[in-house]
Amino acid sequence: MDLxxxxxxxxxxxxxxxxxxxxxxxxxxxxxxxxxxAHGEFIMxxxxxxxxxxxxxxxxxxxxxxxxxIGFLVGGTMGLILEAxxxxxxxxxxxxxxxxxxxxxxxxxxxxxxxxxAPAVNxxxxxxxxxxxxxxxxxxxxxxxxIMALAIVAVxxxxxxxxxxxxxxxxxxxxxxxxxxETAGISSRTVDAGTFFIGSGxxxxxxxxxxxxxxxxxxxxxxxxxxxxxxxxAGGMGRIKGAVVAxxxxxxxxxxxxxxxxxxxxxxxxxxxxxxxxxxxPQGLFTLRTRSLA
Amino acid sequence: MNRFFETRLGAWTGFAAAALVLFGAAPLILSGFRLGLLxxxxxxxxxxxxxxxxxxxxxxxTLGQGVFFGMGAYLMAMHMKMADAEFRNGAGSVPDFxxxxxxxxxxxxxxxxxxxxxxxxxxxxxxxxxxxxLGLAVFKRRVKGAYFxxxxxxxxxxxxxxxxxxxxxxxxxxxxxxxYFFGYNLADPINQRMLYFIAAGVLLVVVALAxxxxxxxxxxxxxxxxxxxxxxxxxxxxxxxxxVVAYATAAxxxxxxxxxxxxxxxxxxxxxxGIVPSIMFILGVAIGGRASLVGPVVGALAVAWAxxxxxxxxxxxxxxxQGLLFIVVIAxxxxxxxxxxxxxxxxxxxxxTVEAAA
Amino acid sequence: MPQRFKFPARDFARTxxxxxxxxxxxxxAACGSRAGEETVATESCVDTSGDTIKVGALxxxxxxxxxxxxxxxxxxxxxxxxxxxxxxxxxxxxxxxAEDGASEPTIFAEKAEKLIREDCTAAVFGGWTSxxxxxxxxxxxxxxxxxxYPVQYEGLEASENIFYTGATTNQQIIPALDYLAETGVxxxxxxxxxxxxxxxxxxxxxxxxxxxxxxVLGEDYVTLGSTEFSxxxxxxKSAGADAVFNTLNGDSNVAFFREYSNVGxxxxxxxxxxxxxxxxxxxxxxxxxxxxxxAAWNYYQTVESPANTTFVEAFKAEYGADRVTSxxxxxxxxSVYLWAATVEKAGSFAVADVQAAADxxxxxxxxxxxVIDGDNHHVSKTARIGEINADGLLYTVWExxxxxxxDPFLEGYDWAADLSxxx
Lengths: 294, 358, 423
What we know:
By secondary structure, chain A is mainly alpha-helical. Chain A has 11 helices and 2 strands. A two-stranded antiparallel sheet of chain A has the order 1-2.
């Protein structure tokens, strides 16, 4: 029984990690159709932001709180630069964007290696987040509760921005129909840049948070990337709701497979589930009805 | 110049020249070690021809060719391990790495690979059939573009992880320490050269097949699907089937390349077939020119050569170079090296149609 | 009914038939010896006429393993510099040809072949993962050359062409189990990365546990590089074993120990015995997460011996005071000295002479005297259990009585009889 509750929680927790990593992607890939393979490296940049902040600030708790907004800015700025220099010129060539950003990712990884060295660095977990809380008979690590809370906050923030701000309205207009939005006087170029800034910023935030549970090394981002993409594919284009449901579902699937077989087979199992799922709903969980052909 | 090679006579001349270089000049000039390296690079080039077909002509960015490359390689490796075991301890005995892993009984799925005929058939059929099934599942539901790319990439990741977990397939270490290739001793330099000839021959075959596909009516349909899938569908064709054929052909080429790679290099492990190696297959194709016939071959050979040469001197610089190549070539020169003459002409004379890329 | 498209099948068949025939013809014309026939081993091209002798250093300088392997390379360079400063080997200066293994087994095989056949090196030092060693082994055997491999590994191997200067299982894992049994551990939980070393190690641990009345409460594997440990740590916690035996590799350790201390497990309640965490890795995991936990190696920076004092001082002087020394580095350092001593004893660089002279060659190393066993090409080593202290270093809490003779196939242990067959 304890184990079952533990697994349930693990599913939620894994899901929230996936969600944090995928939320930014869901914006950039989902809203703009741009596959940013460097998204993982933006997460990595967030990890190192947390590391550097901690080196400067010293106190683990304070530095975490400071690093979260800085991580957002670092990730966002990197995204903005990438968008302006490369992606903007490749909007009509989505597959090429994928390869170009993969190249960017390779370069960023090597930069991290040259600046911070190849070995993993340690980001100290704040005293307040160490240890666990007893919940329904199992011990739940506080770091994971923090990440779940952060994921909920991030989703809420993105939803609020999209729904209730003028900028969000413009973003939704461009997603719904780019040409029509432009006709209505919306500068799709500005909207694209803004969306990319937010999406990449979220990657930075995810990176800061992930230092609480994982290691910080040049290849950190890579390990989250494929799973994050699967979340977006399964969730459906342009749907934050889809990303949330898909992330939790994938997390739970992984946890269940892991309990009854090995962690390796769990990865394979998740892939099979997704291919079968796409047979049923090729456009993902929640589809955005547009009038475009393809 | 380009026109000439598109004629029948031109094609024959091209093949004759290539054969002369591969079978005549290369073995004369290169040392045994360098010739072995070239054979290894040729295996990558064979994969590249398939990718050129699926991606350049068909618009399917397959980021998971490592899966099919790996299938061919592992199937061949299984046969070679079985043959080793049989030669040392008699028929039906357990390959050496299994003994070390504590596996005493030969797993049932290994047994048929004692037969060379079965192995070759498996190398040709299994990956192709898998590609057809997967292709039908994906393309019939009109999953395409980025979705397909990501799925194929996830597949490569899942396949590598699956193999790492299988101790009876060598696990993380993979399969290595082969002694004989269909009865020929691999330590003998003459036999190593034979392997090179086989690789070179297969490369020519694969290029010839790709050429015929391009020239056929099917080849035109494939390009049509790439450029306007809906219109092809409106004309009454099933676009999914057209794509599946190209995807399966690319899988077949990759599998054959993998099967040759194993005796040439002497090891296959999950590290050679996962997500990153699969994307690296793409790099050569992009540089050479995805939509051209020989572009992918030249590109793959050039990238592999550059990697060996550069990484010997500047290991970290090579990673930068790789990244920058991806960025510069794909962003600025989507047609690859093959498009340079056309691009140059456009500069001189104003617009000329360049073989567009998907 | 969709329109059908014609696949150029007949053209295909024609091309295939014609080219296959030609290739088959060329290939068979160029065929060499068949299975069972003796092949002429490629002549060694090592040049011993000049004032210098070339050796290869083959480590990953790029890719995931670069973290660890660059430190090994530093140690190899230092040993060679020292030997050169003392007059070289057989009065010849050692010249290093360096290559990057790029963390990929195929590249290791390729570069090993280059070092032997193109650069004509007398011996090669390097390799880390078992995958890289397994990839290089046939290359060194086929070309009859020498590899010195400096990392602890899963045993069950002995090649004429490889010298193993790291620990085999009976010099690391079995002493670790002995130590746990001595301290009264009655049940253990096994956690490892999913590849050959943890699997083999755990097979040995299971056999040991059965023979010594220790209960194995669980055995879990994660994919290499995985950072998702909540399931496993929950299972470890609810199983309530006396100790955990950890064969995780690399970054996974970071996530594991964080999760471990987060659910409230400590070294006092349930100590973790690790076999892949050395001085280099402690910093990345964070001392607060791992303080008090145990590790099993043959060498720590804190080992007290005159040879080690010199070694540590020289290393810090060469590469910086903030650097630490670790077991694989020390084993790599030893491997160079062992090779040089063997060559001096043989009076020759030739592979056959080195192999013949190897038995009994010894070196006063930082970990103590190490002696080559001529039968299995491993070296005798002292096993040490270390505890991780707040300063990030490991301190010996237990050590074996003298050096342990290498036994890669565990032939001296009755309970291990079922584990493997000798070659």
